[in-house]
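Quiz preparation item.
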């Protein structure tokens, strides 16, 4: 179920991969791959970002390469991954909607309007706010949350990076909000939607999630 993985140690590989993808999928789009990639890198390099950077996109693409054959429309999933966090203001409720809008702007003129709509829907699937039924929506949601299945040390590092993006938000506001999100994930019948991610990451993700919730509760925080 794997593609040949692409290493992202060299930043030039990001640009080459995106150029090939955009040229292949976005027939008729007025913006060139180079222009769009420049907008992406500018956004992902914003000074307030610590977790939602191009490194996160690289990690998502590595997960995608492992599971690409599970997708009905791999190119749509991959483009949505590139764009799903392109607009990011810490705490804003509409980051994904704005990211989808930016994709629509970048893909203006694309001859396949159904493809445009499909990619916009995939970006919105990464809000993790409602149950998902479509196969590719479930796959992109699993990819976005794959970090929950890392070692505790790596998972905790990601948590510190996320907290740093909310530097102006006091702990008394940040951690109750985080707990509400985590409790929502705990309430799922399974953490991941797809069998592939369940087999690889479900036990570790559940353990990390439980450990983090217990740590926050022990520190006096609640989701209420």
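Solution:
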């Amino acid at each position: 179920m794997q593609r040949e993985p692409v290493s992202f140690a060299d930043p030039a590989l990001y640009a080459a991969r995106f150029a090939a993808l955009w040229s292949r999928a976005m027939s008729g789009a007025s913006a060139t791959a180079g222009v769009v990639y420049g907008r992406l890198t500018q956004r992902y390099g914003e000074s307030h970002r610590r977790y939602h950077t191009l490194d996160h996109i690289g990690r998502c693409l590595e997960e995608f390469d492992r599971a690409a054959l599970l997708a009905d429309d791999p190119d749509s999933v991959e483009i949505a991954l590139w764009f799903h966090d392109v607009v990011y203001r810490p705490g804003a409720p509409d980051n994904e909607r704005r990211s989808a809008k930016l994709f629509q702007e970048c893909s203006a003129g694309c001859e396949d309007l159904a493809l445009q709509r499909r990619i916009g829907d995939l970006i919105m699937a990464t809000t993790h706010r409602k149950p998902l039924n479509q196969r590719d929506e479930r796959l992109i949601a699993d990819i976005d949350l794959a970090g929950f299945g890392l070692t505790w040390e790596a998972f905790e590092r990601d948590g510190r990076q996320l907290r740093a993006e909310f530097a102006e938000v006091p702990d008394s506001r940040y951690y109750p909000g985080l707990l509400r999100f985590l409790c929502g994930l705990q309430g799922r019948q399974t953490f991941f939607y797809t069998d592939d991610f369940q087999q690889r990451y479900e036990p570790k993700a559940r353990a990390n999630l439980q450990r983090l919730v217990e740590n926050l509760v022990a520190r006096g925080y609640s989701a209420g």
